[in-house]
Design brief:
With 968 residues, the chain is α/β, with parallel strands linked by helices. The chain is built from 33 helices and 28 strands. The strands form five sheets. Strands 8-9-7-10-11-6-12 form a seven-stranded parallel beta sheet, sandwiched between helices. The protein is globular, with a radius of gyration of 34 Å.
């Protein structure tokens, strides 16, 4: 049998492994070993290839001391430095400070890094990120995911987002963070079932990083599988839409509660986490930590602060104490309808009222929904309503208006699902054609009415609003020729109508256009042209209200009509009113006077701006309005022929009630925004500096890559400022391509230039090079001649690792220590200097080298004693920090448990009193006792988890490499 001792390093079929033991079964010889990335295996020695890993230190003989020098293969200083760098990068990747800073191609703001640091310092990465619109919650989520990925805690990831934002999430995660998300939709689900089998759990797979919509994931068919699926990271965007409201939680809230409970890390993202009530916000807090607050307890500021970070545009300051975000001014431009337009408006409204009332009577809500769409298009433009009326007329004449069968898109839209703009447009066109009649005569009457309305629409060549907007643009460009303007409209029909109207204007060729059919590449090109080119005008539908940033080039916006959802209006304004905007943002809203919609939305906008002025946070106001159905209020007033003042009064009462609740929450500081000022900037800068010390600078990565490629036989050449090309050695190539580049080590350069590979610390090339260096037998022992060393000695590089009781690595360090040959005095700082130092050419004194080799055992013993003391000190420090963190959660848990026990016990006592009067309460009492038992089981399970989290387990320190050092 081959001679292998426990602990020996070997390569088993080419994979690094460590021998546990060898033994025989009859005539067969077996080896039991721990194999890297595979765990413990027992294999027949005859069936595998086993290579002993060379022990470079053991191979050094005192007799060979006179042959050693820094360039000698056995003790190469260059290989020692490479290995030391690779080890440092590896442990930093697993357990550094903020690793995502250097790994992301996005301009990072200090307040965003502060949010990431706050989340990463928590015992569990579960948080509600409630920053205002435009502050970059997407970026913060991506940074946190990169941090968790670097710590090997993000293998299985699920993004749950509104349907119309899926493409944006996929694009942003790929563009900024090199994270590839797979869209989990019907096509994906059916494909996975074919691949894995109908009975398989398609969600429960390793190495999955999925993005799906709330509507898709909440379907009943997936809920049993989601119960059995655990996620490393779950991110829920627009999380307020999944909050619990009322007696019966929605399918969406049940689904999010399910995936939240089955996840390790959880990020809920919402600029509007509350609706001015309390129940919905409380449910979001409970998703983060279901044991934080008992059912009959009030939320406290301390509890909320532990789970939520929230910053507003009004509370972010620069180093000079100036607010980062400028003010904004919203102005309404009233437009008086001429006689012919007012007649047309009243005629269409009468028609809408008639069909809407008929749909209510015959219980056909889809038709009522179609009428609401028609009323919205009526106040958008003549172009939009004329196109809608014409399509409806054609469908009724062709008998394409049955309400019995709706497409999947239309049904989803009717149910309130968020759709992408192209899907939304198709769904609206389908729904707007629907009607319901009690007889053929009634249908014929509706067709005739539509013919009359289309004829009226065609008689109005250009509506008064379009004329006024055209004159406004003309005047702006004449008076301020250097300004740019962003114009939003809700409907593609209105956009086409406007473009046709201004086609002969001298500035028409400067108009850029974005709508739902513009693909992401063309949209990016248009964004680039508007921001940096000569074009001064961008006309867009709401397809551009999210996902593009125009704050550096534009501060003037025109809303051709107001969307009936105030949140959508805020998303539009957020394209300009976001970080980096230097000018006051001017928003011009064009609305018709003396119309029901105009009056209501003028009041609504004034109310929003008024409350925003008092509270300082637009998102808070929008949260109040989130579940107020403005569409329904307007349509009810049309149906009942109520004046606009009645609807305004009802809406004002609702808003005032929400405002009072919100004000009370502010007074209790439950949803207050935190201030980010100069002191906050200094704190996060310290973290950033520490992170760079741990992980290395761009210069460190540059040095490692260039030196590594050249040592392995390749070549790196400069190809311009911050630009390089390389000829890769065979061991680093992927496929047959030996050329690599152009590439850069500079984040700033990579962000400013397309088509350039950015070699970041977690770049594939860096990772392959690290693996190649660490798998090599070289670099375990080095030799250096250094001017700052007084006495010969050995520098040892120890890997020190700590886990908690759950097996999660909570800290990992490389500790260097130098022990000199004369005094055997261990010194940490000098050890690090030796590791970092650049050796000079030459050969050491042979007698000194021989003496070091002979006495290395005693020097190692001194180094071990030093490291054991450092481990004990670090362990105590970690224990104290973990004890504080877990004790707080244990206290919260006990308070929660006691309150819940008392509440359930009161139910039991109440039922027992009723039983004494003769009522049969056995079932009710047993139900509450079972509930109490389940509570105790949940509490005990959580307590045990927290106690394991509080444990600090030190893994045996390992010498990863060592370096003989000699004075010059």
């Amino acid at each position: 049998m081959n001679s292998f001792d426990p602990g020996d390093s070997i390569r088993l079929n080419g994979t690094p492994a460590e021998v546990i033991k060898t033994y025989s079964v009859g005539d067969l010889e077996y080896l039991r070993a721990y194999v890297e990335d595979a765990g413990v295996k027992t294999v027949c020695i005859d069936d595998v290839e086993i290579e002993s890993k060379r022990n470079r230190l053991a191979e050094l003989e005192p007799a060979s001391a006179d042959k050693l020098h820094p360039d000698h293969e056995a003790v190469s200083a260059e290989w020692f430095d490479l290995r030391s760098q690779a080890l440092q990068f590896q442990i930093a990747h697993e357990q550094g400070q903020l690793l995502s800073i250097s790994n992301s191609l996005v301009r990072l703001e200090p307040y965003q890094l502060a949010a990431v640091n706050w989340v990463m310092q928590k015992l569990r990465q579960r948080a509600l990120i409630a920053d205002d619109v435009g502050l970059g919650k997407t970026i913060e989520a991506g940074l946190i995911l990169k941090e968790l990925t670097a710590r090997n805690r993000a293998e299985r990831v699920l993004f749950v987002v509104p349907a119309h934002l899926q493409k944006k999430w996929i694009r942003d995660m790929d563009r900024f963070f090199d994270i590839g998300l797979t869209p989990a939709d019907r096509q994906w689900a059916e494909g996975e079932r074919r691949r894995l089998g109908e009975e398989s759990n398609i969600w429960d797979q390793d190495h999955q990083q999925l993005v799906t919509s709330q509507a898709f994931l909440r379907q009943e068919e997936f809920q049993p599988a989601l119960d059995e699926t655990f996620w490393d990271v779950v991110v829920v965007d627009e999380a307020h839409k999944a909050a619990k409201r009322g007696e019966s939680p929605s399918k969406t809230s049940k689904m999010v509660e399910r995936v939240a409970g089955n996840s390790d890390s959880l990020l809920l993202l919402s600029a509007t986490p509350h609706d001015g009530k309390g129940e919905a916000f409380r449910s979001l807090v409970e998703y983060i930590d279901p044991f934080l607050v008992a059912e009959d307890q009030h939320l406290s500021k301390e509890a909320v602060d532990r789970v939520m970070i929230r910053r507003g545009k009004q509370t972010l300051y620069d180093d000079d104490g100036e607010r980062i975000f400028p003010d904004r001014e919203v102005t309404t431009i009233p437009i008086d309808m001429p006689h012919e337009e007012r007649q047309f408006y009243r005629a269409v409204t009468d028609y809408v009222q008639n069909v809407y009332n008929r749909s209510e009577k015959l219980n056909e809500p889809a038709v009522g929904f179609a009428m609401a769409l028609m009323q919205k298009r009526l106040v958008s433009s003549i172009g939009a309503i004329k196109a809608t009326l014409s399509r409806r007329l054609g469908d009724l004449v062709d008998e394409q208006s049955s309400t019995t069968r709706l497409s999947e898109e239309a049904s989803a839209y009717l149910d309130g699902e968020d759709l992408g703009e192209d899907d939304k447009q198709r769904a609206e066109e389908e729904l707007s054609a629907l009607t319901v009649t009690e007889s053929d005569a009634q249908l014929e009457e509706e067709i005739e009415t539509l013919r009359d309305l289309v004829s009226l629409a065609e008689s109005i060549s250009v509506d008064s609003k379009a004329q006024k907007v055209r004159r406004y643009i003309q005047q702006l460009l004449e008076e301020q020729p250097d300004e740019k303007l962003l114009l939003f409209t809700q409907y593609r029909d209105t956009l086409d109508y406007l473009l046709d109207l201004v086609m002969d204007e001298p500035w028409a060729d400067e108009i850029l256009v974005i709508h739902g059919d513009v693909d992401k590449e063309e949209r990016a090109r248009i964004e680039e042209e508007f921001n940096h080119g000569q074009s001064r005008l961008l006309f867009a539908t709401d397809a551009a209200s999210e996902g593009i940033d125009l704050q550096h080039s534009c501060h003037i916006m025109v809303n051709y009509e107001l969307p009936w959802n105030p949140n959508r209006l805020e998303q539009r304004i957020g394209r300009l009113h976001r970080y980096g905007q230097d000018e006051e943002v001017k928003v011009w809203n064009f609305t018709f006077e003396d119309t029901r919609e105009g009056e209501i939305f003028d009041m609504l906008q004034n109310k929003v701006e008024s409350i925003r002025g008092k509270l300082g946070n637009t998102a808070d106001v929008l949260g109040m309005l989130d579940d107020i159905n403005v569409d329904s209020l307007i349509m009810e007033s049309i149906r009942n022929e109520e004046p606009a003042s009645a609807t305004k009064e009802e809406l004002e009462e609702l808003i005032d009630e929400r405002q009072r609740t919100l004000q009370e929450w502010y007074e209790r500081s439950l949803v207050d925004t935190s201030t980010f000022d100069q002191e906050s900037r200094q704190k996060i800068q310290e973290v950033m500096d520490e992170s760079e010390d741990v992980y290395g600078t761009e210069a460190d990565i540059h040095e490692f890559v260039e030196r590594g490629i050249e040592v392995l036989g390749g070549d790196v050449e400069k190809a311009g400022t911050n630009l390089y090309r390389a000829e890769l050695p065979r061991s680093l190539r992927q496929g047959t391509d030996e050329k690599y580049g152009p590439f850069t080590f500079s984040r700033e350069f990579a962000m400013d230039h397309d088509g350039i590979d950015y070699v970041s610390p977690d770049d594939e090339l860096v990772q392959r090079l690290m693996q190649r260096v660490l798998e090599s037998e070289q670099g375990n022992v080095g030799l250096k001649l250094l001017p700052f060393v007084d006495q010969p000695g050995i520098a040892y590089n120890y890997r020190v690792t700590f886990e908690d009781g759950t097996g999660e690595v909570i800290r990992e360090d490389m500790i260097s220590v130098y022990v000199d040959a004369n005094h055997r005095d261990p010194r940490g700082r000098l050890g690090q200097r030796v590791v970092d130092g650049e050796s000079i050419k030459g050969s050491p004194d042979a007698d000194r080298a021989r003496s070091l080799i002979e006495h290395q055992g005693q020097l190692r013993a001194a180094a071990d004693r030093y490291v054991s003391q450092r481990v004990a000190s670090l362990k105590e420090e970690l224990y104290e920090r973990r004890r504080e963190e877990t004790q707080q959660e244990l206290n919260d848990l006990e308070e929660y448990a006691e309150a819940e026990r008392q509440r359930i016990q009161e139910f039991i006592e109440n039922y027992e009193q009723k039983a004494e009067t003769g009522s049969n309460m056995d079932i009710a009492i047993r139900g509450q006792q079972e509930r109490l038992n389940r509570l105790e089981q949940r509490i005990e399970s959580r307590r045990q988890e927290l106690e394991r989290k509080a444990q600090i387990v030190s893994l045996a320190p390992e010498v990863e490499n060592l370096c003989f050092a000699f004075p010059v």
